[in-house]
Amino acid sequence: MRKAQTLGELKASGYTTRTVKDEMRANLIKKLRSGEKLFPGIIGYEETVIPQIINAILAKHNIIFLGTRGQAKSRIIRQLAELLDEEIPIVAGSEINDDPFNPVSAYAKRQLELHGDETKIEWIGRDRRFVEKLATPDVTIADIIGDIDPIKAAKGGHILSDELTMHFGLLPRANRGIFAINELPDLAGKIQVGLFNIMQEGDVQIKGYPVRLPLDVMLVFSANPEDYTARGKIITPLKDRIGAEIHTHYPKTLQIGIEITKQEAWINRDSLQVEIPEFIYELVEQIAFEARDDQRVDKRSGVSQRLPITVLETVVSNAERRALLTNETRIVPRIADIYAALPSMTGKLELEYEGELIGAVKLSKDLIKKACNVIFEGFFLGIDFSSVVHWFDEGNKILLSEMASTDECLNLLSQVPQLIDTVCLPLDIAHEDKQRLVSACEFALEGLYAQNKISRNEEGGYEAITKAKRDRRGMIYEDFSDAEGYN
Fold it and tell me: The pTM is what?
């Protein structure tokens, strides 16, 4: 169907305009009635965050999302644009998406005065109606609201007091759309006052003369709850005008976290087939859960969901490197690959004083150990590994290098009595699947180390744990020496 190209054609078509919040509300109602999935790709918020968002939109409220890093706040905000109409008409050439039936800017009003029903109409999509800005201390009123443009005045022959000399900022350009500000508390107080003024009255003062801009905007913000509540960086009148305060959160369960990580992590490699054992998925995710509960990690900063995502990607990459060097046909990660992913872990942990004393590397290794203890219990609860522990107690050792081939590792692991047979049944692994078998055996040895039944050294070697180390059970990485390179 041909779209209206002039104001007269738009009137004849029977088109009626509605506010952006009415538009979003109507489109949301359609989606709810049709059973369409809202916010695809957002996992774990079905019973918490998403119902609150629906309520806020139905109530036509502005929204602020409160949550620590890595909780999908920005992704949710961007998906709100899907609740806008596919296209809306504006006065052609308008910088602020002027409604042809109710123009706001001097430019659009002049076009209608000059051309009447022959005024040209332009149709814009959702992408031009969503404006996002990351708040930083250097953001100015001119960036958000606008400023006088002397060049525009000179070219158009206007006096500086003429509204046509105005350069519109991001907020007016989001007219009839969504304006999103990430990390709202980082905005200077005077900028927040400008936002409040727009929300409350629609008036702005630019370089000494008033401009009435009754904007039609859905405002959405994000912030860290520590900034929002403790530091008091959001001015009270602005907080009062935000209708809905929605708290995001990290995954409530391990399985939800695994589902998110599987969705977001890049694990499909074009070189070889990737097969990740389930215990590797669980172990990587449990590391994040342990970090969020650890008192040595800063709770205000949080532990982003990006930690297990990047760790899993690095785990697969290290396993891929091993497979390429050893000419193996599949990529099957092992415990050694998780230790190789320490660089993907340490940079994502903000530490408290005690954590700083230990250091990010040792703390990360301790988190791996704690996580492995939890996951090991889940897979091998009630399984008897006494013969394996006894073999190590007799003075035997085994070294599983991270770059050792599957056959090399299997030859070493076969020396440990009953180890292979013990791990196969609970994990449902066939003896013929050598790569998974090696991964499972290394997981079992790491679990015994996590329970302080055997010891592990930096190179991936397992041996008997001494009496002194047994007596110091629970200390941070007591197995490792303080030699240079381990600190």
Answer: 0.86
CA 287 to chain centre: 17
CA 268 and chain centroid, separation: 20
| H helical segments located in 294-405 | 306-325, 335-340, 343-346, 353-358, 360-380, 386-393
CA 182 to each of CA 31, 155, 186, 224, 247: distance values in angstroms, whole numbers, following the listed order: 27, 36, 9, 10, 14
Residues 485, 486, 487, CA angle at the centre, nearest 5°? Answer: 95
Contact 77, 104 (CB under 8 A): no
> Which residues, 6 or more positions from 13, have their beta carbon under 8 angstroms from its beta carbon?
4
Beta-strand relationship, 454-456 and 461-464: antiparallel
pLDDT tier at 485, thresholds 50, 70, 90:
very low
Q: What CATH number has the domain spanning 7-247?
A: 3.40.50.300
The partner residues of 245 in beta bridges, in order of sequence, read 64
- The C-alpha atoms of residue 358 and residue 295 are separated, in whole angstroms, by 13
Tens-digit pLDDT profile for residues 247-272:
999 999 999 999 999 999 999 988 79
Cα distance between residue 92 and residue 6, in whole Å: 9
First to last CA, the chain: 70
State phi, psi for 130 to the nearest 5 degrees. -120, 120
Contact 307, 350 (CB under 8 A): no
Cα distance between residue 260 and residue 245, in whole Å: 24
Residue 149 has pLDDT above 90, yes or no: no
Distance CA 56, CA 83 (A): 13
* Residue 199, C-beta contacts closer than 8 angstroms, at least 6 positions apart: 62, 219, 238, 241
CA triple 209-214-216, angle to 5 deg: 140
- pLDDT, one tens digit per residue, over 203-241 is 555 555 566 778 889 999 999 877 554 444 788 888 888
Cα(335)–Cα(411) distance, integer angstroms:
18
Within the chain, which residue ranges are assigned CATH 3.40.50.300?
7-247
Q: Are 468 and 357 in contact (CB under 8 A)?
A: no
Give the C-alpha separation, 361 to 365, whole Å: 6
Distance CA 349, CA 360 (A): 7
Round to whole Å and give the CA distance between 427 and 311.
23
Q: How far apart are CA 24 and CA 21, in angstroms?
A: 5
Q: Is the dihedral of CA 291, 297, 303, 306 positive or negative?
A: negative
